[in-house]
Amino acid sequence: MCSCSLFAKDETVEFELPQWPDYLPQLQGWNIRGGAELVEAPSERRHVSFHLPRNQPVCITATPITQNQFFKSAGTIYPYSNKITWSGGYAAQLYKIIPDSKQFNWEKLMDALESCENPWFLDMQEVLEGIAYHDFSVTKLKTSQTICVETGFEVFSSYVPENQEFGPENCVVTVKKGVPELFALRQSSALRQSSGSAGLEYGLIICASSAKNISLDLVSMPIFKEEL
User: Fold this and answer.
1) pLDDT tens for residues 63-89?
2) pLDDT at position 68, please?
3) How far is CA 104 from CA 57, 130, 133, 160, 222, in A?
4) Which of 77, 95, 89 shows the shortest CA–CA distance to 13?
5) Do 118 and 179 fall within a single domain?
6) Do residue 186 and residue 132 come from a single domain?
7) Whole-prediction pTM value?
8) Whether 69 and 133 share a structural domain
9) 17, 30 Cβ separation under 8 angstroms
10) Which among 171, 182, 210, 214 is least buried, having the fewest CB atoms inside 10 angstroms?
11) Can you say whether the dihedral through the CA atoms of 83, 85, 89, 94 is positive or negative?
């Protein structure tokens, strides 16, 4: 919704935030940016409003605040949509890089991204060139060169929707061929008791050049704690 007059140069626009799944680590809040304005919102907030220039595209990003700042931002591009989505975070990142491509059909792109398993697996350079040189088609949104890896551990992906596929009975993740991918290790109850923390303290870097050539490296993840 928006409140504006016919001759106003600005308008107040309300945006809907995405749901935070219960199975993910605790959400402490959101860092939400709309144009030059930055808002910190509590985790229970479902909507946020920004005062924006009329008829000018603006990317909106909503970054989840968690212990490790691990998860990718959600987002959207206004006025093409005022619903902030996880796949829209990828579209917002594209728009940040090439904001002058206002003649491009960003609305169609965001609709197409909704059906991508994980848009961050796409070749961003190829997508950007297609937009910049007016040679874009939805075929550029087809992910290729991905490999399924059985981890043996329960992990979290930084792309929130992908986590709904993971669990105790399914420790198989998808990575882009030849590109190291960081996953957060889901702590066991025993590890939580010994460490006194339910956060994500360890990560698993997976790199696979083929189905038989896979490396898994355990790393410590930085922890961002709130100041008391």
Assistant:
1) 999 988 899 999 999 999 999 999 999
2) 81
3) 11, 10, 10, 27, 39
4) 77
5) no
6) no
7) 0.85
8) yes
9) yes
10) 210
11) negative
